[in-house]
Amino acid sequence: MKMAKIMLAGCAALTVASSVAFAQQTLTGTVTAIDRISGTIAIKQTQSGTVGANTSGAAEEFKLQGGKLNELHAGDKVTFSASETAGTKTITKIDKQ
């Protein structure tokens, strides 16, 4: 029983650590869609480290708060940081490249 508690605590610590790592990572991508009514933005991330790698998959949708939503348009290349809380990804910082 004690071993099960230790394993459960370890799993919980790993989950928290992975969320923090995601929040601290600066990502780059291209804006594919903006929904100003719901305050969301879709960004297709560019894969780093590989020459000619432009196929990183589908765009991810993020919540974006503040006035930056009106400054961005589909097709803009951006660098951003995001955090995830309760399954909702929220952009904490975003800049045009």
Structure summary:
The protein is of the alpha+beta class and 97 residues long.
Describe the structure.
The chain has one helix at residues 2-24; strands at 26-35, 40-45, 60-64, 77-85, 88-96. 24% of the residues lie in helices and 40% in strands. The protein has a five-stranded mixed beta barrel. The protein has one domain: OB fold (Dihydrolipoamide Acetyltransferase, E2P). The N and C termini lie far apart (53 Å). Strand 1 and strand 2 form a beta hairpin. It contains one helix and five strands.
Helices, strands, pairings?
Blueprint: H1 2-24, E1 26-35, E2 40-45, E3 60-64, E4 77-85, E5 88-96
Parallel strand pairs: 3-5
Antiparallel strand pairs: 1-2, 1-4, 2-3, 4-5
CATH architectural group: Beta Barrel
Tell me, what is the CATH class?
Answer: Mainly Beta
Instruction: Write down the CATH topology.
Output: OB fold (Dihydrolipoamide Acetyltransferase, E2P)
Overall pLDDT metric: 79
Total number of distinct structural domains:
1
Helix segment count? 1
Large-scale geometry: globular
In terms of DSSP E residues, the strand content is 35-45%
**Biggest sheet, open or closed, and with what strands and sense?**
5 strands, mixed, barrel
Topology as a string of helices (H) and strands (E)? HEEEEE
CATH superfamily: Copper binding periplasmic protein CusF
The residue ranges in which pLDDT falls below 50 over 5 or more consecutive positions are none
DSSP summary, beta strand count: 5
Structural class: alpha+beta
Quaternary organisation: single chain
Query: Terminal Cα separation, in Å?
Result: 53 Å
Q: Compute the CA-based radius of gyration.
A: 17 Å
In order across it, which strands form the biggest sheet? 1-2-3-5-4
